[in-house]
User: Which sequence fits this backbone?
């Protein structure tokens, strides 16, 4: 095992740290309150090369390895997990094309995100969350076209993307074996953005409904074969989950740093609260949890980069890092007492943001099922 980062990886981390310090931290409270990213931020992300990290070099992207991408997302997670989530949605939406796309589809998706545009991954529906096989959006054949009808919900970047990977059922009677993935342009007639969600945390990220009303998609934009959608979605989520883990590690680390700084400054009983052993115990547990989650995320990425099977470790990384982020941010609020609970300090937002990590891209219960099934069978 080699825990040294390459010079490139160190440079990527520094680039992300600078982006956070300059473009996110000074505006974070305003973006949280307004529930949107400030104008021009996506352009800054584009200029920093963050939006197309998974695009291979032969398609004019950086073609970065999974570990390098995770290191960047860890830094972004320190700044704002919601903004990191918005940027990561480009990776989530692109993976189906990476996994099973044709040359034409790769060009279309990658050219769009290479241009600094956003993409969204649309699987979830009001009645199909953990049970992705319950997708009821239909894809009905009409000559060379499919006609898509249905509603998607909770879609990250739903309202601000140019291109979408949409999952619909092309053979209702086949259930999960009818699930099929498509690339849909935002300006396709019949495609519209529905309600924007007002969320507890990760508020700068845009989350909306999508409405598909007789949306005609040419068969050339069907990703993989009819009925391969479930397999493509699962492979996509395997690839994307370590990134959720990386954001969780960054978020947890930022909360730990905030708690340490405060504990050294805050005086009670005539001493800094950092000198109390009960507080020290919490700090030590938080630090050990962050480091454990970090190692798990890096291992999942390392396995992926080695071309080894990483499905189990990907689920472990997402689940562990999300739970760690929730616990560590909650403890950071505790260490900061009443001040931690106030919006004037950063940790209450971190605690609100952390909760989502346990829910999206497969809830942590679903990750535990993946882990248990992998180990048992
Ligand atoms: C802010 C936000 C952004 C999101 N972004 C996207 C996106 O970009 N694209 C997209 O497609 N989706 C997105 N989602 C959807 C997200 O992935 C789902 O919310 C998630 O998969 C859970 O589905 P659900 O909300 O319907 O909960 P449900 O599936 O109804 O689950 C409710 C509860 O039941 C538990 N549960 C369900 N089944 C089982 C089981 N078999 N065993 C044990 N427990 C179980 C769950 O763990 C959970 O605790 C987003 C969600 C949110 C909140």
Assistant:
């Amino acid at each position: 095992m080699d825990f040294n980062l390459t010079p490139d990886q160190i440079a990527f981390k520094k680039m992300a740290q600078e982006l956070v310090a300059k473009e996110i931290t000074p505006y974070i409270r305003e973006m949280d309150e307004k529930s949107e990213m400030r104008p021009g931020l996506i352009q800054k992300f584009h200029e920093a090369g963050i939006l197309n990290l998974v695009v291979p070099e032969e398609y004019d992207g950086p073609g970065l390895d999974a570990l390098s991408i995770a290191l960047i997302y860890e830094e972004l997670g320190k700044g704002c997990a919601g903004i990191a989530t918005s940027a990561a949605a480009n990776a989530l939406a692109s993976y189906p094309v990476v996994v099973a796309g044709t040359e034409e589809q790769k060009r279309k998706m990658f050219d769009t995100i290479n241009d600094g545009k956003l993409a969204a991954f649309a699987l979830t529906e009001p009645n199909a969350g953990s049970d992705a096989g319950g997708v009821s959006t239909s894809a009905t054949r009409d000559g060379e076209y499919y006609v898509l009808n249905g509603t998607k919900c909770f879609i990250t970047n739903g309202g601000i993307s140019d291109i979408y990977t949409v999952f619909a059922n092309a053979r209702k009677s086949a259930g999960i074996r009818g699930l099929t993935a498509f690339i849909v342009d935002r300006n396709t007639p019949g495609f519209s953005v529905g309600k924007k969600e007002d969320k507890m945390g990760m508020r700068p990220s845009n989350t909306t409904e999508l409405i598909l009303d007789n949306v005609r998609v040419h068969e050339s934009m069907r990703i993989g074969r009819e009925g391969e959608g479930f397999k493509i979605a699962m492979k996509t989520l395997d690839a994307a989950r370590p990134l959720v883990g990386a954001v969780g590690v960054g978020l947890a680390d930022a909360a730990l740093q905030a708690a340490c700084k405060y504990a050294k400054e805050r005086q009670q009983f005539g001493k800094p609260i950092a000198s109390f052993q009960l507080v020290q115990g919490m700090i030590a547990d938080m630090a050990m949890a962050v480091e454990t989650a970090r190692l798990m995320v890096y291992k999942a990425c390392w396995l992926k980069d080695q071309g080894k099977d990483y499905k189990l470790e990907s689920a472990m990384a997402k689940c562990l890092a999300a739970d760690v982020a929730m616990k560590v941010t909650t403890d950071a609020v505790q260490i900061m007492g009443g001040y931690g609970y106030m919006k004037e300090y950063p940790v209450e937002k971190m605690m609100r943001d952390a909760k989502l990590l346990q829910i999206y891209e497969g809830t942590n219960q679903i990750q535990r099922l993946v882990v248990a099934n992998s180990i048992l069978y």
User: Anything to note?
Assistant: The first strand starts at residue 119 and ends at 122. The CA atoms of residues 115 and 361 lie 26 Å apart. The beta strands are 119-122, 138-142, 145-156, 163-169, 179-185, 191-196, 207-218, 222-223, 267-268, 271-272.
